[in-house]
Amino acid sequence: MAYTTAHVPLQAPDFLIDRYHERYLELGFEGLHRTRFEAQKKLGIIPQDAPYPERTSNPLLRAWSETDDEEKRLQARTMATYSAMMESQDYHIGMLLNYLKETGELDNTLIICTPDNGPEGTDFRGDLSNAAFTKWARAAFSQKFEDIGRGNSMVFLGTDWAGVANGSLQWWKWFIGEGGIRVPLIVVPPKNTAFDRPGEMTDEYAFVKELPMTILDYAGVDHPKTEFKGRKITPPSGVSLRPFLAGEALTPRTEEEWVAFEPFGNSYVVAGDYKAMRVRPGMYGDGTWHLYDIKNDPGETRPLEGDQPERLEKMIAIYERYAREKGIVPVADDWNPWRDT
């Protein structure tokens, strides 16, 4: 079941938007960011000693004090619409679960719930805007305050709120900071299957490619691996989550079952609890590889390459081998997808 995600356009019922507007107007960017960070600690989503990722370290984010009163109202209404969309989605997922229960199918259903990656930081202003798109959107849709969230409007969450929405994580969609690639995952196996982790919250790493393998596993279907109906196919790189959910494995993946990825010429590798990453200057990085412990420092505030150079060297070698095998095409260090397209 695919729901409209809270990206573009942001649209939701007025009565839900109204629930959040005054709260976000009061808190502003910094207030809501700190509130979410502390809430994530209280709920056990991040370690109690996880360092706070200061907003001032990001060159694209503004302070709430840099906006005038009218923009504050518009910004608060936009963020309220974002939250209203998610509340509406929660409600309708609940209706779906109720239907499965009423029809007697709930216990026979594998439930997997996960969102798209990262809040949408594209904007109508600033570095992450596109002049042609902004001109079209402003001509084709209402820009009135009272229309924000309605069908005749088009608004983004925008850069400043994207830097808020993740709380403990930095960056957002398009970027390879944890805020752009880490998402929650909820899994409830069918009843009467081995399940050793009901109600458990874990920060163990899993990749999206695990999902099809997990579905096949619970369905009792063996993946054909390298050949299907006489055709050669690429073997899957995902692993089933079933052994982890059943308590038969301590982690979904071992450190040797690393994950490598490359979006927009930026590079990262995750192996166990560690992540090595390189962000090009064209996307506001320094072009240098850095190493982080993303379990204990999900905000990527404490680079470890000085303390663990051997680990970083090993992970860079993994990525370089991956890039050669997959034919990754190098991207110019100064290329910017908003400015140069």
Explain what this protein looks like in three dimensions.
The chain is an alpha+beta fold and 341 residues long. It folds into 3 domains: 14-105 and 116-181, no CATH class; 185-252, no CATH class; 256-341, Arylsulfatase, C-terminal domain (2-Layer Sandwich), CATH 3.30.1120.10. The protein is 34% helix and 8% strand. It has 8 helices and 8 strands. It has helices at residues 14-42, 69-102, 131-140, 159-165, 178-181, 210-219, 242-245, 309-326; strands at 111-113, 186-188, 227-228, 231-232, 259-261, 267-271, 274-278, 289-293. It has a 4-stranded antiparallel sheet with strand order 5-6-7-8, covered by helices on one side. The longest helix is centred in the first third of the chain and has 34 residues, at 69-102. It starts with 13 loop residues before the first helix and ends in a 15-residue tail after the last helix. The relative contact order is 0.12.
Brief write-up:
The protein contains eight helices and eight strands. It is of the alpha+beta class.
Helix content: 25-40%
Mean pLDDT: 96
Query: For the terminal residues, how far apart are their CA atoms?
Result: 33 Å
| C-alpha geometry | globular
Overall structural domain count: 3
Low-confidence stretches: none
Q: Tell me the number of strands.
A: 8
Cα gyration radius (Å)? 22 Å
Order of SSEs = HHEHHHEHEEHEEEEH
How are the strands of the biggest sheet laid out side by side? Answer: 5-6-7-8
Structural class by sheet pairing and helices? alpha+beta
